[in-house]
């Protein structure tokens, strides 16, 4: 969706959405409201969704909010959201902590990002770059060919159910790669540098 559901309200202020943005858990909030939630807790960590308690690592402003960017108040809130995304979009310090955080956040964001990507690929009005579309299609096609082909790193005939692990691992890596590509597109599109 390019914006929150029509008859929905912000679960923080219980009012109509003002500068609506969608969290990686798929819930919608007012931009100011979710920034207040973040500032109320520790500003050194991402805030948790008030509804499902998942860590919010990505906030995507709605299309209507982006069209109003010329308004100084909207620009200020969008700037705060960009800063939040820059801080918690996977740019943590420490190599081991960064790898762990990125892997966990990408696994949790997988349904959200894939659902959004599928909607964007199917919508003829959206302009997803051709290079990104090609990378997504190539990753999906190559993993499908590997799973269907008789060539296998761990043969199912010998090891039974354990032999399916390499197939599942290939599918997981494919989906994580696709989610990472789309997350980078969203981050760049909504003010990342």
Please provide a written account of the structure.
With 193 residues, the protein is mostly helical. It folds into 2 domains: 89 residues, Zinc/RING finger domain, C3HC4 (zinc finger) (Herpes Virus-1, 2-Layer Sandwich), CATH 3.30.40; 100 residues, no CATH class. Helices cover 56% and strands 5% of the residues. The protein has 7 helices and 3 strands, in the order E-E-H-E-H-H-H-H-H-H. It has a 3-stranded antiparallel β-sheet with strand order 2-1-3. A hairpin with a 4-residue loop joins strand 1 and strand 2. Helix 4 crosses helix 7 and helix 5 runs antiparallel to helix 7. It is elongated and about 60 Å long. About 4% of the residues have low confidence. Its main location: membrane. It is found in: Endomembrane system. It holds the Pfam family DUF1232. Keywords: Membrane, Metal-binding, Transmembrane, Transmembrane helix, Zinc, Zinc-finger. It is a multi-pass membrane protein.
Q: Can you lay out the helices and strands and say which pair or pack?
A:
Layout lengths: L19 E4 L4 E3 H10 L18 E3 L1 H5 L4 H17 L6 H28 L7 H19 L7 H4 L5 H25 L4
Antiparallel strand pairs: 1-2, 1-3
Short description:
Helices cover 56% and strands 5% of the residues. It is mainly α.
